[in-house]
Amino acid sequence: MTTQTNNNVFYAQSGGVTAVINASACGVIETARKQQVLGKVLAGRNGIIGALREELIDTSLESDADIAALRHTPAGAFGSCRYKLKGLDQNRAEYERLIEVFKAHNIGYFFYNGGGDSQDTANKVAQFSQQMQFPITCIGIPKTVDNDLPITDTCPGFGSVAKYVAVSIREAGLDVASMSESSTKVFVMEVMGRHAGWIAGAAGLAAEQEGDAPHIIVFPEIAFDKAAFLAKVSDCVKKYGYCAIVVSEGAHYADGTFLADAGSRDAFGHVQLGGVAPTLAGMVKQELGYKYHWAVSDYLQRAARHIASRTDVEQAYAMGKAAVEFALAGKNAVMPTVVRESTNPYRWSVGEALLSDVANKEKLMPRDFITADGFGITAAAREYFAPLILGEDYPPYANGLPQYARLKKILVPQKLAPWKV
């Protein structure tokens, strides 16, 4: 347990940001401000790197109104990073530096808002702080548009990106249908999802009637079969006059080779992906001769706060709030989760999972969520996805544009020697 003197909080955002990660930050800060036993919430500038460099943003200098505005602001208000701490045996110095910074700033609580790699980091810090005899209460806060964290029913960030891709393919499908007689017959939309096809699958919600877009979904869970794919495209064009396709960036062949392997790796060691949409479009053109268009949703899908799911926003805020409550209840090395109580009507509650059970694990789409031919979603998948995109939570608008938080982000004075990351 932390002592009363070490009552400041360190909060950081990690990995790819989302439309609602700041709602979790808002939940943390607003809840912490109501607790007399807690001191300041210090946010890492650019995630865990901010802790290593001792670049700590003093959120107590932000107004209540500006903190409240985080709830409807996309991206990472304090900056994020793709920086993975190595194992203790590989780089003990980094962990010692973290404890040194936490000691210098009376930090007794560490809230890390991210995906599987981030939960692994929080778990390691919890373990190492015990060894250093300066115990830090470490709570993970779930976040990932990929929806691939285990145990939690869904991940904050996913519901909003699911809503965005379903709306986008519905609207683009109508456009292609309008032009298909004499122009474009095939449209390919690429969405995120390295190993898990949750985002691609959610796009299937747009198809409510026979012939609706998307006609084909290409999942990373199903090995790509070129012949079967082209036959399906040809059949759709003959039947409906056009074919709208959603493909996950992680689509791969039976031997595991990604269709869009860019030949490099990111900071977490993941294969850098990009370009599966033009790859498929080119394949269609070469083999079938159809005119095509393609689009890569990329950052647009995860930054689209203007069309966020209200359910997602509420869950993101609840996870941040629960993190503070867990810490004050004496819990450590855990992560709040979303528990689905019922689907119709949709009800959910806050649960918890051990960080050790979440760290570095991926939850893939169940096979029974994917149709037998591998190119669509089943009724079971639709039942799972449908509640997650419900409700609108529009940001305030001025001059025709959404208005988002602009924080001062003032750093606390540094007390230690500089650290190079």
Give the key terms.
single chain, 421 residues, alpha/beta, Rossmann fold, four-stranded parallel beta sheet, 15 strands, 34% helix, elongated
TL;DR of this structure?
This protein is an alpha/beta fold.
How would you characterize the overall build of this protein?
By secondary structure, the chain is of the alpha/beta class. The protein folds into 2 domains: 203 residues, Rossmann fold (3-Layer(aba) Sandwich), CATH 3.40.50.450; 146 residues, Phosphofructokinase domain (Rossmann fold), CATH 3.40.50. The protein is 34% helix and 19% strand. A 5-stranded mixed beta sheet has the order 3-2-1-4-5, sandwiched between helices. A 4-stranded parallel beta sheet has the order 7-8-6-11. Helix 1 packs across helix 11. The mean pLDDT is 94.
Rounded mean pLDDT is 94
- Gap between N and C termini: 30 Å
Please mark out the parts with pLDDT under 50 across 5 or more consecutive residues, or reply none: none
Which value, in Å, is the CA radius of gyration?
A: 22 Å
Tally of DSSP helical segments: 13
Q: What is the H-and-E element order? A: EHEHEHHEHEHEHEHEEEHEHHEEHHEE
- Strand proportion: 15-25%
Secondary structural class: alpha/beta
Per DSSP E runs of 2 or more residues, the count of β-strands stands at: 15
The 3D shape can be described as elongated
Domains, number: 2
